[in-house]
Amino acid sequence: MTETQSRSQRQLHLGLFLFSTGYHPAGWRLPEAVTDGAFDPAFLKSVAQRLEQAKFDFFFLGDALATSADMQHQFPSQMVRLEPFTMIAYLAAVTSKIGLIVTANTTYAEPYHIARLTASLDHLSRGRTAWNVVTGADARAAQNFSRDKHWDNAKRYDYADEFVQVVKDLWDSWEDEAFVRDKASGAFVDGTKVHPLHHRGEQFSVAGPLNVARPPQGQLPLLSAGTSERSQELGARFSSAIFTGQILINEARAFYAGVKGKLAQHGRRPEELFILPGLVPLVGRTDEEARAKYRELSGLLVTDFDLAPLSGRIGIDLAGYDLDGPLPDLPQSSHPPEGVRALVRLAQDAAGHDDITVRELYHFFAATARGHLLIVGGPETIADRIQEWFETGAADGFNICPPYMPGGLDLFMDLVVPVLQARGLFRTEYEGATFREHFGLAKPDNKFARERTLQESRS
Question: Buried-most residue among 42, 117, 325, 395 (CB within 10 A)?
Answer without folding.
Answer: 395
